[in-house]
């Protein structure tokens, strides 16, 4: 071994040791933040404390500068650390409020197989939760919902909207008729890559396999590609499986690089989506609604149909405004069998137990033809606390 190699190995050993220590410190920090959660449960305090976060960040940015670490680096690092701490605390509070939901095995139905975006979202959502995960890949949204309704599965993870291709109508329509409740949500980045099983390059490709939603999210890239046959599949994982089976230099699948790796596929081009910030939002549904503690930020989803008179929807929305309730999404879908009538799906910030929410629901019940609460669930989005580096350095 050359001197350089020996030297490099020694330095790398030291780095690995430090990384191990960093991990140990992060685990110790997690223990302490879990203790904070216990105290908050007893004291009925909100999980999130923006002032504490701001003071913490200001102090850390200043300390970091003294050690040669940039404010951007320190801020980014601690946003991740705090996000994890907040999500873990939220989970602990939610667990305490729903002791019956602590299952040793969580049987979860989702679209596709290993490697699909739904699979990756399922892994992410349940990784923080106690109990083992039993994956139940399904071939259609109908099958997924039926699995939970018939108690073959405990939960389903369903994609509901995407930042490029918009709402997933099929899932909205299923929500209209199911007795299941929304108990959680999460967003997951969708990073489409061109995945191949054989040595090749873009110019040799003749056939592309992907889910139709993926084709619409990558339409600009496909238009640039020109004369290529696009073959729709039931799921992203089915597309990957196809590419893996064919091992043909003329064939590629579109999906995530992480998912593709599970099928031995190599990404030859990434960032294929029209919108560079491409995220999907998923909902988690179960047979039983959850109890969301007031200390956790939450959302409530409603579905309603208004009476047939001018301004009926506006009037319903004014009820939300009058109760200071913030609407985060409004979606409309046709009602089967009633041409030109619509079901409105509304996501609002707030807990079902809140006074303003209760009074808004009471008013809405009086003015709508149909109103159903699809669920009240914890908000998974932890918006990072921002501090200007200048304000940290001024302290
Ligand atoms: C740990 C706490 O809970 C939250 C997480 C924080 C953290 O991880 O440092 C800080 C403030 C809170 O938003 C706390 O309140 O101290």
Q: Which helices and strands occur, and which strands form pairs?
A:
Layout: H1 3-43, H2 50-66, H3 71-97, E1 105-111, H4 117-127, E2 132-138, H5 141-149, E3 155-162, E4 166-167, H6 169-177, E5 181-189, E6 193-196, E7 207-210, H7 212-217, H8 219-225, E8 229-232, H9 236-246, E9 251-255, H10 257-261, E10 266-269, E11 279-286, E12 298-306, H11 312-322, E13 327-335, E14 338-349, H12 355-367, E15 368-378, H13 389-394
Parallel strand pairs: 1-2, 1-3, 7-8, 7-9
Antiparallel strand pairs: 3-4, 3-11, 5-11, 6-9, 6-10, 12-14, 12-15, 13-14
Helix pairs in contact: 1-3, 2-3, 11-12
Overall description:
Pathway: Metabolic intermediate biosynthesis; prephenate biosynthesis; prephenate from chorismate: step 1/1; Amino-acid biosynthesis; L-phenylalanine biosynthesis; phenylpyruvate from prephenate: step 1/1. Residues 107-287 form the Prephenate dehydratase domain. Its main location: cytoplasm. The protein has 395 residues and is of the alpha/beta class. The chain folds into four domains: 3-98, Chorismate Mutase Domain, subunit A (Up-down Bundle); 99-190 and 279-286, D-Maltodextrin-Binding Protein, domain 2; 193-269, Periplasmic binding protein-like II (D-Maltodextrin-Binding Protein, domain 2, 3-Layer(aba) Sandwich); 298-378, ACT domain (Alpha-Beta Plaits, 2-Layer Sandwich). It has helices spanning 3-43, 50-66, 71-97, 117-127, 141-149, 169-177, 212-217, 219-225, 236-246, 257-261, 312-322, 355-367, 389-394; strands at 105-111, 132-138, 155-162, 166-167, 181-189, 193-196, 207-210, 229-232, 251-255, 266-269, 279-286, 298-306, 327-335, 338-349, 368-378. The strands form three sheets. Strands 1, 2, 3, 4, 5 and 11 form a six-stranded mixed sheet that branches. It has a five-stranded mixed sheet with strand order 8-7-9-6-10. It has a four-stranded antiparallel sheet with strand order 13-14-12-15, sandwiched between helices. Helix 1 (3-43) packs across helix 3 (71-97) and helix 11 (312-322) packs antiparallel against helix 12 (355-367). The longest helix has 41 residues, at 3-43. It is globular, with a radius of gyration of 24 Å. It binds ligand ISJ.
């Amino acid at each position: 071994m050359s001197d350089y190699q020996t030297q490099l190995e020694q330095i790398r050993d030291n780095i690995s040791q430090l990384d191990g220590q960093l991990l140990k410190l992060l685990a110790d920090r997690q223990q302490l933040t879990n203790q904070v959660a216990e105290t908050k449960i007893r004291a009925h305090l909100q999980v999130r404390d923006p002032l504490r976060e701001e003071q913490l960040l200001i102090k850390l940015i200043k300390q970091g500068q003294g050690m040669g670490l940039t404010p951007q680096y320190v801020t980014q690092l601690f946003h991740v650390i705090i996000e994890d701490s907040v999500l873990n605390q939220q989970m602990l509070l939610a667990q305490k409020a729903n002791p019956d939901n602590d299952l040793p095995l969580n049987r979860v139905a989702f679209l596709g197989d290993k490697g699909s975006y739904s699979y990756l979202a399922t892994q992410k959502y349940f990784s923080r939760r106690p109990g083992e995960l039993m994956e139940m890949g399904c071939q259609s949204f109908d099958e997924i919902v039926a699995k939970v309704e018939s108690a073959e599965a405990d939960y389903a993870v369903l994609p509901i909207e995407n930042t490029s291709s918009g709402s997933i109508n099929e899932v909205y329509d299923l929500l209209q008729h199911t007795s299941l409740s929304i108990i959680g949500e999460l967003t997951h980045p969708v990073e489409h890559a061109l995945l191949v099983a054989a040595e090749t390059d873009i110019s040799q490709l003749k056939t592309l396999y992907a889910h139709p939603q993926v084709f619409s999210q990558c339409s600009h890239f496909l238009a640039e590609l020109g004369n290529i046959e696009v073959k729709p599949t039931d799921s992203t994982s089915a597309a990957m499986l196809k590419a893996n089976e064919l091992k043909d230099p003329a064939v590629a699948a579109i999906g995530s690089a992480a998912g593709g790796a599970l099928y031995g596929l190599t990404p030859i081009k990434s960032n294929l989506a029209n919108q560079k910030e491409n995220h999907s939002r998923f909902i988690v549904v179960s047979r039983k609604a959850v109890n969301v503690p007031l200390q956790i930020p939450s959302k409530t989803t409603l579905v309603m149909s208004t009476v047939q008179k001018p301004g009926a929807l506006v009037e319903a929305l004014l009820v939300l405004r009058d109760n200071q309730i913030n609407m985060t999404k409004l979606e409309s879908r046709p009602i089967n069998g009633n041409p030109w009538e619509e079901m409105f799906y509304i996501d609002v910030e707030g807990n079902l137990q809140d006074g303003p929410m209760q009074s808004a629901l009471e008013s809405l019940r009086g003015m709508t033809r149909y109103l159903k609460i699809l669920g009240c669930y914890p908000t998974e989005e932890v918006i990072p606390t921002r501090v200007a580096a200048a304000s940290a350095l001024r302290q």
